[in-house]
Known about the structure:
mainly alpha, Na+/H+ antiporter like fold, 2 domains, 15 helices, 0% strand, globular, membrane, transmembrane, transmembrane helix, BilAc:Na_symport/Acr3
Amino acid sequence: MEFSTQLLYAHDQILLALMIFVIMLGMGASLTIDDFKAVARSPRGVFIGFLSQFGLMPLIAFSIATVFNFHPAFAISLILIGCLPGGTTSNMFTYFARGSVALSISMTIASTLLALIMMPILLGFYTSGFTAQINAEMQASGTGTFVIPTGNIVSSLILVLIPVLLGMVIRRKWPDWAKTAEDTAGFVGIIVILYLVFTAFTRHGSLFLKTPVEVYIGALGLGLIGFFFGYWFSRAVGMYPLFQRAISLETGIQNGPVAFAVILLSFHEPVQSQMLWLAILYSTFIVITSSFITLVFRSRGQFDWDVYKNVTIHNRLFGKNYVTSYPQGFLTKRLINDPSQGTSPAQKRSVAQ
Length: 353
């Protein structure tokens, strides 16, 4: 699938860059030093999240691209999305899904910083075959050569982190402004997706029909499969339901604005428009699928969430050493030894009550 013209023009890219800046500023405005300390206090959850984020997702993306025989540019884009860190969108969905927001934020922080190291390594490992195909095509047509611009990708990630750091400074010095920036970021995120889809539709209306079915499957399936494996992987290693939901959402929801920034700053035509188009489709579908998964999690997690809130209130009222008693058979198997789900040491008991 070739693009006869650029998907986005220069002024579109400038506007998109400003929107990305606002989104990442809002992400930084939602963070504090205490959030970083929380990463150190819950290393197991963050480590499981790390394995899901940088172990499962790139492999899932590579598998989809291989099974459905993606065009190399689409394959590289999908794998790039699979290698991305999480973003504040996953934190929001985790909140509504009755998951551990603290773990979600910790995973977002850790994955954003680790992406500087992991993305170049994973892209080099998973995209080598697709890169070789594009390079061979370009050499055959006499249009040059193609390599994954590792240096540019790292530089793009560093540039994206600058507004995050600025947002943290605003949070520390001007909390009211930080709240405004945080709330604005979520709204702007939706505007970005709508703007990109509207632009593509008005200028390239036939693009939706020309896009191969497998590209739609990949853009939709990456997030859904990420949710599935993130949930069951965390469940298999014994994480509590509160954390399972957080890890599932953090695994499936990748940072779309970072994908746009990396593609625009690091890649050029003839592959840039194709890569950007798949990123737009993923970002559109992930909002829809995340909403559905969140509703499912919110419904299924009602009981363990109520128990968690109940023991939290007890410890707040009666002291951190208070142990809540429940009737025999009331708690489910996964909660019977620790109804606080790891959040209150006093509530952990070695024998079922």
